[in-house]
Design brief:
With 297 residues, the chain is mainly α. The chain has two domains: 3-209, no CATH class; 210-297. Helix 4 (53-64) runs parallel beside helix 7 and helix 17 crosses helix 18. It contains 18 helices and two strands.
């Protein structure tokens, strides 16, 4: 028995309705043309626990799958809502896909939501909406992120981060990252999760200053886009400012690495206190200078 099967066995002993959730997740593997398994799984979870962030996460992940990959939408209850306390996850998945290019729809949905309810709206926006729609909603997105509780913001950042790293969601242009950072750092990070970081030109590197990148350490693992920028910029500029960014994120950070030899001044700083930077010198100074800095992650 696999770990997945064993987990569901234990869950079904608690509540037999988890069997429906297991069935929906198994159907996803056999239904490559539709996003219905995602909305079905989220709905089965709602039937057990009510609306939850986990169900929202499952639904948005399904909605983020490109229509070219999974074209067909699933069943939904037209008397329920895409967001808010009366949410129905079939509506959420279908509506944000069908309205991905309609800025007025997104803004109209936002107006009906409480501060906490706008976390799901923000997640769907950055993960699914067309780039022009995200750009049109940046001011509202920044306002909502400022108003969220620390717990809601952390959940939103973590979900967006994981989805962005998976590569499932469509990629946003780098100039949109720069525009988002100009409005607010949290908004910039959310947009950066879904940008093509590896294939972008220098305008993404310019989106995050060393000062903003250091402040992004407050978001923990979800700050990986700025760490990729920091690693690239450190090699390109040999600047102590960018080394300070890795230092601010600490040795537990994931994502920052210097891609090439570094000058003696920077090597000396790391060797002088290797535990502070998100880098590790291995086998002493000679190997560090010969192979440059190696990441701890």
């Amino acid at each position: 028995m696999s770990k997945r099967q064993e987990a569901f066995r234990r869950l079904k002993k608690i509540d037999s309705r988890f069997g429906r959730l297991q069935q929906a997740m198994n159907v996803a593997r056999r239904s490559p043309g539709t996003v219905a398994p995602s909305s079905d799984a989220a709905e089965h979870l709602r039937a057990i626990y009510g609306p939850s962030w986990l169900a929202t996460d499952i639904a948005v992940i399904g909605a983020a799958i490109p229509p070219e990959t999974r074209r067909d939408v699933g069943p939904m209850n037209p008397s329920r809502s895409a967001f808010g306390p009366d949410i129905e996850y079939g509506r959420l998945v279908n509506d944000i896909r069908l309205n991905r290019s309609r800025a007025q729809w997104w803004l109209g949905q936002r107006e009906t939501l409480t501060v906490a309810g706008r976390a799901a709206w923000a997640y769907g926006l950055v993960a699914v909406a067309a780039p022009a729609v995200v750009a049109a909603c940046l001011s509202e997105l920044a306002d909502d992120l400022r108003a969220l509780s620390a717990g809601h913001l952390a959940a939103l950042m973590a979900s967006s981060s994981r989805l962005g790293l998976s590569g499932v969601s469509r990629r946003l242009p780098p100039d949109l990252v720069a525009a988002a950072v100009g409005v607010s750092l949290p908004a910039g990070l959310l947009v950066a999760h879904h940008a093509d970081l590896l294939g972008t030109s220098s305008n993404l590197l310019d989106a995050f200053t060393p000062e903003a990148s250091a402040r992004a350490a407050a978001f923990g693992a979800a700050a990986w886009p700025v760490l990729r920028v920091a690693g690239t910029q450190l090699t390109a500029t040999n600047s102590l400012d960018w080394l300070a960014v890795l230092e601010a994120h600490g040795p537990a950070a994931a994502g920052g690495v210097a891609h090439g030899p570094l000058p003696g001044q920077l090597c000396d700083r790391v060797l002088g206190n290797p535990g502070r930077e998100g880098l590790l010198a291995q086998d002493g100074e000679s190997m560090l200078r010969a192979e440059c800095l190696r990441p701890v992650f």
